[in-house]
Write a structure and sequence with these properties.
By secondary structure, the chain is of the alpha+beta class. The chain is built from 18 helices and 22 strands.
Length: about 600
């Protein structure tokens, strides 16, 4: 479908375009140009056809009147057809200027057109970007990616990664690649396994992270490593975590302390966010919050500091008080605590009752409260503990008339999650939380070990390769559950961006740490033999971190779901609907791999 009216003046121009669809300006008026792109939309204004032509770079308005030699062909064009047009650039009149488009001062009068790729009826619209079922969006992701918002998100992702790479190189780091096919290791998640054809019955694993390799790079004598690294974990999907695969800015450094890592990484992340935050506030100096303190103040280890509410321990004000429910629990169990969740401006019975109903809906017996008016506390709790204790609580929390406070009681390890949820709920309901900006913090001093209730044993709580604070002496003399590690996270707006640690570079400490976690020396040799051998031949003190690329992009794009910043994501069931993965394989492929399927019976 090529017009016979092609102008000889276009003979020397590129086959498809002289300009992109985002390039033309008023200075181009009078020129004859050639554009190629997708038909964004077609409008008929009284017999004059208007086509918004779109490519990667922008949109240009094209006009075809009945005098054009290709008018009859343009009448057949539909949305998302790919076409090439030739025409003259003309200035728009004042009434038709589009100040929202860089090309909004001009339009092209079409004199020639060629259809490069016709489109069937669309399974989802591109123009207008209405909400559409996720399964359709993922199956036709190539169409979904044409939408302006998603297209811009992916381009912003590319710019962010480019900036990361530049900043790391400027900071003296070197980019190295690590293997994708490696050995399975117990690193906290399920491995994706790859059967070996050449070694029947044996399997490779896709790396959950380049953890061992980046440490080995340090032991091999290199110094500052980084990589935009793909990681693979067989985990369930969440809004901030893709099933299957994700990317991280993997970093490792030799001859460093924890403080050295902070000083190297913090400026990179801070300045990266400043660059892409569109003027929104970014934390200048990241506060350091010990894990224990974070749990007590915020109810979790990834606090959203845009919420100003800080919980406090008020157990002393309830011990021996007339509020028998709490006082009795405190008397019976020395581990019981009462945490207060302040609610500035929440001082009304209606709001307090609403929060109490919410707590019951969360499976809790309720949520005790005091609200303040006329210089005194009101409600059943205030009545039972008395005026003096009520005033002491108000003074400790800085509360006054018009405010409220809520209480949770029990063993913190059992109620901290609910308390954290209540803090968030109160901040949102009372509109106390900031909605703009990026508030960072470091979470430090994580426990080295935790008690595994299911298996009734001590286990690693974070990274098994971390250096325990106190070294070998602590492992040999302390209760394992009291030992902290040189482990740290970076958190932004309640999202954990990265975990890191100063590594355990001494074989005897590693052996003891794994022994405490129930791994005997043979298991250590079998699973981490390469690492163990490397440590025995002169390993430097080293440490690192691995900020999540996908989560960083999600925050900077203002998206609530990581699938909105990933080019070809899977769905919640870890399926790639576009490529139909995972898929069946042929019997001959299975025979080559010496694999026989043992599928579960259909119910």
């Amino acid at each position: 479908m090529k017009s016979t009216g092609e102008q000889s003046s276009m003979a020397d121009i590129h086959d498809y375009r002289s300009h992109t669809c985002g390039a033309l300006r008023a200075s181009d008026v009078g020129n004859t140009v050639r554009l190629s792109g997708w038909v964004h939309r077609v409008r008929d204004h009284g017999g004059v056809l208007f086509i918004d032509l779109r490519d990667h770079y922008g949109v240009t308005q094209c006009v075809c009147d009945p005098d054009s030699p290709v008018f009859s062909q343009i009448e057949n064009v539909r949305a998302e057809w790919v076409i090439r047009i030739d025409g003259e650039v003309k200035a728009r009149d004042d009434e038709s200027l589009n100040k929202t488009l860089p090309t909004g001062e001009v339009e092209i009068y079409i004199r020639d057109m060629e259809v490069l790729g016709a489109a069937k009826e669309l399974p989802l619209p591109v123009f207008g970007e209405p909400d559409y079922p996720e399964d359709i969006r993922l199956k036709y992701r190539f169409l979904d990616l044409r939408r302006e918002t998603l297209h811009n998100n992916i381009m912003k992702r590319a710019e962010i990664i480019s900036s990361m790479r530049r900043r790391m190189i400027e900071a003296g780091f070197f980019e190295f690649q690590t293997p994708i096919l490696t050995a399975s290791s117990p690193e906290g998640a399920r491995d994706f396994l790859v059967p070996s054809r050449m070694h029947p019955g044996k399997f490779y694993a896709l790396p959950q992270a380049p953890q061992q390799f980046k440490q080995l790079i340090m032991m091999a004598g290199f110094d500052r490593y980084f990589q935009i690294a793909p990681c693979f974990r067989d985990e369930d999907a969440r809004a901030d975590r893709s099933p299957g695969e994700f990317y991280q800015l993997d970093i490792e450094m030799s001859f460093v302390t924890q403080e050295d890592v902070f000083q190297a990484v913090e400026p990179v992340l801070r300045d990266l966010f400043v660059e892409f935050a569109d003027g929104k506030e970014v934390t200048e100096n990241f506060p350091r919050i010990p894990y224990k303190e974070s749990m007590e103040k915020y109810g979790n280890d990834k606090p959203d500091l845009r919420n100003p509410i800080v919980m406090e321990n008020v157990t002393e004000h309830f011990a021996g008080s007339g509020f028998k429910i709490f006082a009795g629990m405190i008397d019976k169990d020395p581990e019981v605590r009462v945490w207060a969740i302040p609610a500035p401006t929440g001082g009304s019975r209606a709001f307090c009752d609403r929060m109490n109903s919410w707590a019951q809906g969360e499976g809790q017996p309720g949520l005790g409260y005091i609200f303040f008016k006329d210089g005194a506390g009101s409600g059943p709790v205030a009545k039972n503990i008395g005026e003096e204790r009520t005033k002491a609580i108000a003074d400790q929390l800085g509360l006054s008339d018009g405010d409220a406070v809520f209480f949770v009681c029990g063993q913190p390890k059992k109620f901290f999650e609910f308390a954290g949820q209540a803090r968030v709920r109160i901040g949102d309901e009372l509109e106390l939380s900031e909605t703009e900006g990026f508030k960072f913090c470091w979470i430090v001093d994580f426990p080295m070990f935790e008690y595994n209730e299911e298996e009734k044993r001590v286990d690693f709580s974070h990274n098994p390769f971390s250096m325990p604070q106190g070294g070998l002496e602590a492992l040999e003399t302390q209760d394992p559950l009291t030992i902290n590690a040189y482990q740290y996270d970076i958190v932004c707006n309640g999202v954990e961006l990265s975990s890191g640690a100063i590594r355990n570079h001494k074989p005897d400490i590693m052996e003891k740490a794994f022994d405490i976690a129930g791994y005997d020396k043979q298991v250590l040799e079998d699973k981490f033999g390469g690492m163990l051998r490397a440590l025995q031949y002169g390993a430097p003190p080293h440490g690192g971190i691995a900020p999540g690329v996908d989560r960083i992009v999600m925050l900077l794009c203002g998206e609530p779901n990581i699938r909105e910043v990933t080019m070809f994501p899977m769905n919640q069931q870890a399926q790639d609907l576009l490529m139909s993965a995972p898929s069946d394989v042929s019997a001959s492929q299975l025979r080559e791999l010496h694999i026989r399927l043992n599928l579960p019976k259909e119910s």
